[in-house]
Amino acid sequence: MPAYKTLEDVIGATPLVRLQRLPGDEIAQRGNVILGKLEGNNPAGSVKDRPAINMIRRAEERGDIKPGDTLIEATSGNTGIALAMAAAIRGYRMLLIMPEDLSVERAQTMKAFGAELVLTPRSGGMEYARDLAEQMQKDGKGRVLDQFANPDNPAVHYETTGPELWQETGGRITHFVSAMGTTGTITGVSRYLKEQNPAVRIVGAQPSEGSRIPGIRKWPEAYLPKIYDPTTVDELVYVSQADAEHMARRLAREEGLFGGISAAGACWVALQIARTVENATIVFVVCDRGDRYLSTGVFPA
After folding, report:
1. Which residues is 119 bridged to in the sheet?
2. Is 80 annotated as belonging to a binding site?
3. Which of 46, 48, 103, 190 is catalytic?
4. What's the pTM value of the predicted model, to 2 decimals?
């Protein structure tokens, strides 16, 4: 009998592709290469597939949850979609709490996987959603996996994403750029890459003042993710909403790479770095696909 794969088996091992046109002659002449890690190729369409399945698997192994239980999570979108998929695969009821102003595509996708949504006021943002999730757990309505404090989130990036990047670049990676939201990706990847070569520079993309970029957050101190270790990040670079949205359109039109807004923000940062260094291999995370943002007006109708 053939050893058929399950859906879980094809999470990760995503392609790493080189930007061809956006860098231009200036960056090429410096000997720099810019690479995008296509996490939108995961089954549920984002980098969050990795921690979603890992958080559920590890909780099962510890005996914290069992199929048939109700899981609860506050989400700005991609983690919710990934958890909805993972819950469907492994047999859980999934309650997702999200601000009402997030894109309709995300909400519809979560529902397609069978998740139930609890929408919170836009004014409360993710902070209110997180507080409500904790209260629902206290009220006995289910178990919060808590992507913001769960060590199984960065652990999967240490175990999979980081090694993939090291192998795919033949150990040549010099810079790793990631949007910072939950911070699981940047924390886990940084730990792995720094073990291989402490000189690898880890750069986090943060939103500039007044910018609202899905997937990139600057948290108030009280809500800073507990999994975040600031010692794993060498530099923070601030990107504006306008620059991120413009870069998303350019990526699609000039590279054929249809990514989300946070991915475009990370790409914008990677290009800024590439103008200041030489002979560098710069990798940024393409967190998800652009089709999740069609209703936002970022892309022309």
Report:
1. 98
2. no
3. 48
4. 0.94
Instruction: Match 């397609």 to its residue by tokens.
Output: 112
**Number of alpha carbons in the 13 Å side-chain half-sphere of residue 141:** 16
Q: Is 48 an annotated catalytic residue? A: yes
Question: Has residue 301 got a pLDDT over 80?
Answer: no
To the query of whether residue 262 is one of the catalytic residues in this protein, the response is yes
Strands 70-74 and 93-99: parallel
Is 211 assigned to a binding site? no
Q: How confident is the model at residue 221 (pLDDT cuts 50, 70, 90)?
A: confident
Model pLDDT for residues 2-21, shown as the tens digit of each residue: 789 999 999 999 999 999 99
Is 169 labelled a binding residue? no
Residue with token string 């770095």 = 273
Question: What gap in Å lies between CA 41 and CA 140, rounded to an integer?
Answer: 36
Token couple for 269: 């940062």
Question: Which structure tokens are listed for 284?
Answer: 């940024």
Measured at the CA of 251, the angle between CA 162 and CA 84, to 5 degrees, comes to: 55
Which of 290, 248, 257, 260 is closest to 17 using CA atoms? 257
CB neighbour list of residue 50: distance below 8 Å, 6 or more residues apart: 11, 12, 42, 156, 157, 160, 161
Please pick, among 76, 103, 211, 262, the residue that the annotation labels catalytic. Answer: 262
d(CA 11, CA 1): 23
- C-beta separation of 156 from 54 below 8 A: yes
Q: What's the token pair of residue 290?
A: 């652009």
Is residue 77 a known part of a binding site?
A: no
Pairing state of beta strands 143-144 and 70-74?
parallel
